[in-house]
Amino acid sequence: MYNDKKVVFSGVQPSGNLTIGNYLGAIRNFSAFSEEYHCYYCVVDMHAITVRQIPAELRKRTYETLALYMACGLDPQKNTLFVQSHVPQHAELGWILDCYTMFGELSRMTQFKDKSAKNADNINAGLFTYPSLMAADILLYQTELVPVGSDQKQHLELARDIANRFNQIYGETFVVPDGYITKDGARIMSLQEPAKKMSKSDANENAVVRILDSKDDIIKKFKRAVTDSGNEIIHGEGKEGITNLLNIYTCFTGKTIEEAEKEFAGKGYGEFKLAVGEVCADSLAPVRDEFARLMADKAYLEQVMAQGAESAYRHARRTMSKVRRKIGFTELKH
Ligand code: AQP
């Protein structure tokens, strides 16, 4: 515990322009914790390099992701907003936890299988050990709660297993974290292949709606969304495309699926897709405006980064000193 408040931690990779999946599954839910918890929201640039990045792009997206956190309502005075590589204890604990994570456990991770298939020419060790670095991110701050989309469930389970294993060997060291996965928004699917989750690094631009897309682009993408050969706007099996659109619509309007189905009963796919596009674009408009304002003030973003790194570093250092002592590393005496 830190300042007597329980801790919330979550992160987003600056590996592309963020999508409404990242927004609805994760970032939008972050600010609800700011009053009650000590919140650490991290731009996880070290995770991003498990896939080859263009350096200038990575740098730019790191600033953008931080600005998006704030544009989505995270006040840097109430939340610790920081960049992972600015706090070296992430790498340090990541390595230590690698030694408490089993090869078999990592081999079972579906994200590793998916990303290896997508990046067959660069299946590096970092891609494989990604989950133990993620465990380090979380455990470093003695985190109680991790708000994430449902695709991170498996990694989170592994973080819990690693924490329990470490605690069993050395006695209480880490808080064992719980996931916080909202029911709606937990899994937004691709607009072109609704069986696949929407991913910011998808090569097909029509599959992905980005938080910063213009209203015109958002509407165009929804108009092109894959549906099915029927004509009813209802959710369920065989209607994966429509189910995804209904889910997105309800996330932005706060309506239930049943209410949305009733609203569009007897209407055509075209009218429905346009309505989803409109509500999505209009809901994101204030985020886009605030993002543009923040990006124009790089000095302020750098100030937030520095302040966040300092606060995260202070907490991370305390956990690391405990971990180092427990595993038998020697102290450097001055
Ligand atoms: N489609 C999604 N639906 C709901 N939540 C999602 N998240 C990601 N995609 C969806 C949630 O967003 C947070 C940040 O994700 P990340 O950047 O750490 O990595 P990711 O899960 O690998 O996201 P992407 O968009 O698929 O990135 P790339 O293409 O780089 O791999 C997490 O909480 C995640 O659950």
Question: Quick gist of this model?
Answer:
By secondary structure, this protein is mostly helical.
Report on this model:
By secondary structure, the protein is mainly alpha-helical. The chain has two domains: about 5-180 and about 300-325, 3-Layer(aba) Sandwich (Rossmann fold), CATH 3.40.50.620; about 205-290, Tyrosyl-Transfer RNA Synthetase, CATH 1.10.240.10. It is about 55% helix and about 5% strand. The chain is built from 13 helices and five strands. It has helices at about 20-30, 45-50, 55-70, 90-100, 105, 110-120, 125-140, 155-170, 215-225, 240-255, 255-265, 270-295, 300-325; strands at about 5-10, 40-45, 80-85, 145, 180. The longest helix is centred in the C-terminal third of the chain and has 30 residues, at about 300-325. The protein is globular. The model has no long low-confidence stretch (mean pLDDT about 95).
Terminal CA distance reads 29 Å
Mean pLDDT rating = 95
- What is the count of structural domains? 2
Spans of at least 5 consecutive residues whose pLDDT stays below 50 are none
The CATH topology of the largest domain turns out to be Rossmann fold
CATH class of the largest domain: Alpha Beta
* Count of alpha and pi helical runs: 13
C-alpha Rg (nearest Å) = 21 Å
Strand content: 5-15%
